[in-house]
Specification:
11% of the residues lie in helices and 49% in strands. It has 429 residues and is mainly β. The strands form two sheets. The chain has an 18-stranded antiparallel beta barrel. It has a two-stranded antiparallel ribbon with strand order 12-13. The longest helix has 16 residues. The two termini are 35 Å apart. 25% of the residues are buried.
């Protein structure tokens, strides 16, 4: 209740502050390219999680902790980026330091490199890049089936900064006449040797990949490929097209070869199978005359588990959680949680809807939004209302609530928490 009152007070404060916003000013000197650039942000965030201690996931994650209904977490983040511009070379580094504390654990990380490296451009249409990078393949907003060489997005907050992988890439661009106006080829190598990219996959692979971009018939098109190595061989394509100035449509398709999948059998043992799954996404973005932006996406996750497979998993972990933490079943359930079963959106079919409004009711610098993510196969869902305010100089205030459906034996109903409230203030410099 205390957290709910805090959230409500914060939302009212944001709405009342719109009349105090500073006047906007424009200085062309701020946009001149400098030899050295340095920027970043400092963030303070407070979270309140309403837990579900009656769920199996609580006992499996916190086997030695008593049941509790609320968990409060405080987080501080410092995000810094530096960039050096030389004649035909750009060197940059992006790092983060963070501190988080709650009743269960305290985590500290002060030297995390998110991305950075050196980009050499000897000609206007050619460049070489070496370093830690996020390639951002795909056109989807919440999901990217063709993101073969990157970490997955968090669908509940797709704009969150993600860590890259160490890689070498080149980029070559050709401008043409006719229906195909631009062609860009980007070959990439993501090596996994020794301690290089240990979380990309198994050691001992160069992991070559490539993207061919085409601006053809007024449509952005990518053809994508990842060679067999630490991850399965994959091919894919994506597209994005503006039907009008207000309406855009986009899509992705990915086909993967020899993907291994562990499935829980009724006996409690796991069965390893191999398949060549297809995943695809279709979405649209629409801006209304009242400045409401609608984003809609449908995802089919070919690597996901069916409703019956997830139901068997939930039944097993619920039984294991009641068997005692020293039993083999309990330990087996903990291992299963580290596999694909407990990953975000581990099912097959999902729906995403987001509506955001720019400065409604003349609330200057204020943007409320509502996001819905639904697992179509089991009917469970997550609703996220939020509001952000940017009227103070170089400062963003944001509050949001994540509300989950509670039905048992469903993806969102079996989560650790059923509600989460968060507030953050982020100062940019």
């Amino acid at each position: 209740m205390r957290s709910l009152i805090t959230i409500e007070f914060f939302l009212l404060a944001i709405a009342s502050c719109s009349s105090l916003a500073e006047d906007f000013s424009f200085d062309t000197n701020e946009y001149e390219k400098k030899t050295f650039e340095f920027n970043g942000y400092a963030e303070a965030k407070q979270e309140a999680l309403r837990l579900q201690p009656e769920r199996a996931v609580y006992s499996l994650i916190y086997p030695d902790e008593p049941a509790r209904n609320w968990l409060y977490r405080s987080t501080g983040t410092l995000d810094l980026t530096g960039k050096l511009h030389l004649t035909d070379t750009v060197a940059d580094i992006h790092g983060q330091a963070s501190y988080a504390e709650d009743s269960f654990v305290t985590t500290e990380e002060y030297d995390k490199v998110m991305d950075g490296g050196i980009r050499w451009s000897p000609a206007t249409n050619y460049s070489v890049d070496i370093g830690k990078r996020v390639q951002r393949w795909g056109k989807g907003y919440a999901w990217n089936p063709v993101g073969f060489i990157e970490r997955p997005k968090d669908p509940s907050d797709p704009q969150t900064v993600r860590e890259g992988f160490n890689m070498v890439s080149m980029e070559w661009t050709k401008t043409l006449d006719g229906n195909i106006r631009t062609l860009t080829l980007t070959p990439v190598v993501v090596p996994t040797y020794d301690e290089l990219n240990p979380d990309f996959g198994a050691e001992g692979s160069l992991n070559p990949a490539a993207k061919l971009y085409l601006l053809a018939w007024n449509t952005d098109i990518d053809l994508l490929w990842l060679g067999k190595g630490a991850r399965p061989q994959s091919i894919g394509l994506d597209f994005s097209r503006n039907i009008s100035s207000e309406l855009e449509i986009h899509g992705e398709w990915a086909h993967q070869y020899a993907v291994e999948k562990n499935t829980l059998a009724s006996s409690g043992s796991t069965v390893l199978s191999t398949a060549n799954p297809d995943s695809y996404l279709l979405g649209s973005r629409y801006l209304t005359e009242h400045e409401v932006t609608w984003i809609v996406e449908y995802l089919h996750n070919g690597r996901g588990y069916s409703t019956s497979e997830l139901d068997s998993y939930y039944t097993f972990i619920n039984g294991a959680a009641n068997s005692g933490k020293t039993t083999t079943a309990f330990q087996k359930a903990q291992q299963l949680m580290q596999s694909g079963y407990n990953k975000a959106n581990s099912g097959e079919n999902y729906f995403y809807l987001r509506a955001s409004v720019n400065e409604p009711f003349d609330w200057l610098y204020t943007t409320p939004a509502l996001t819905v993510i639904s697992h179509l196969d089991d009917g469970s869902f997550q609703i996220t209302p939020e509001i952000s305010y940017t009227g103070f100089s170089n400062t963003e205030l944001r509050a949001r609530a994540i509300l989950l459906s509670r039905e048992q034996q469903t993806e969102f109903g079996e989560k650790l928490s059923r509600q989460r409230f968060e507030i953050y203030v982020r100062y940019f410099f």
